[in-house]
Amino acid sequence: MDNYLYKCHYCGIEYLPKRRNKQKYCCNSCRVNAFNIRNKALAKPNLKLDTISKEKSNKDEKISMAGIGNAAIANAITDFGKAVLINNENKPATKKDLKEFASSLAQRYYPVNNAPIRNDGTSAYYDSKQKVVVYLKGIPSWK
Question: Which of 24, 82, 112, 136 could form a disulfide with 124 if both were Cys (CB 3.0 to 4.6 A apart)?
């Protein structure tokens, strides 16, 4: 076994080889990357090895109209699926829902003006559905 360090033919890092006189690269990823670059250089003989590695790093993702259209279609399909598949009671409450709830409370409970406020801070309200007087902390006025 060799006792001195070799230089990797791909990345240039010094390494201690695991095989005798066979190993040119420090790891499998360097070996595979070097192989891929050599094959690209053979497929395009007028390119240098340096330009091939630079081509990889200079590729930028660009926005295209087809990509925007695909994203819009995907969003529309998911929104439609949510609208069809989710029950109304499982959907999140909106401001309109809260206002309707507050107005339904205001239509159900009417304040009793001649009843005093109790020591715990609750006021008397007449419940129009149950036809009784109840003591509540306060009805929110979200109108």
Answer: 112
